[in-house]
């Protein structure tokens, strides 16, 4: 994916200024920056949720921003979104929520009637199993914890059979343990399925732990783009617009409190069954 000069203006506010970068497939990218830096707007433009003011996003030789109608719809299906607030249907059971990810793969009539095939059901169950929450399949989504709901949202994204996953602050509403489980899930999907994952994160330590590459945004501009290991304290100061007194701890979710192995134990060892 080659992004060139991607810009979004809301009236007099330029939320994203001429963002230019390319993402080789597959890569796990963390976008960091303080609140209002333009991270959400950038992701939303990629997925067409927010129309870009200027710029191009080229994949396989075509500019996806110029897509309309069915082609645009297909592109939105190709880049599954995950949101901070999960965006599940609270009163529907978990399995149905996950199968909703299949809807836009079918024609309008089948979608309207929510007609799911056996294959849709099996696929949704496999995704839930993979995320370690198959036992909750028949519970209403609203009965689950935040971390479980986010795993349902990831399972729904997987059943969409996407080319990439765009996650907008997926752990911002979660406790540290749930946050680790969700980030481990995204990492596992990236590694095992070879999917690109682009993830907006508030916290530096999360980006360093899970992402290969970090893009730092400040006031709408990309001010850093490099390997996660290159995000030094000085770079972090530049991204967060902070002075010498800057303490990385203020961007931390204290993930160190939870051993990564402990969090990963919550996920089913899918490799073993694959
Ligand atoms: N729909 C909108 N209308 C007007 N201004 C907007 C809109 N969406 C975002 N903005 C503005 O664009 C800028 C970037 O916002 P954006 O939400 O992309 O930042 P962010 O880095 O994702 O912040 P946060 O982490 O708080 O979500 C901000 O100044 C914001 O107020």
UniProtKB/TrEMBL annotation:
One GO cellular component term, please give it.
membrane
What Pfam families would the database entry show?
ABC_tran
* Keywords from the UniProt entry: ATP-binding, Cell membrane, Membrane, Nucleotide-binding, Translocase, Transport
SUPFAM superfamilies recorded:
P-loop containing nucleoside triphosphate hydrolases
A GO molecular function for this record? ATP hydrolysis activity
Bilayer-crossing regions:
none
Domain of life assignment:
Bacteria
Chain ranges of the ABC transporter domain? 1-244
Q: What is this protein called?
A: Phosphonate ABC transporter ATP-binding protein
Gene symbol? phnC
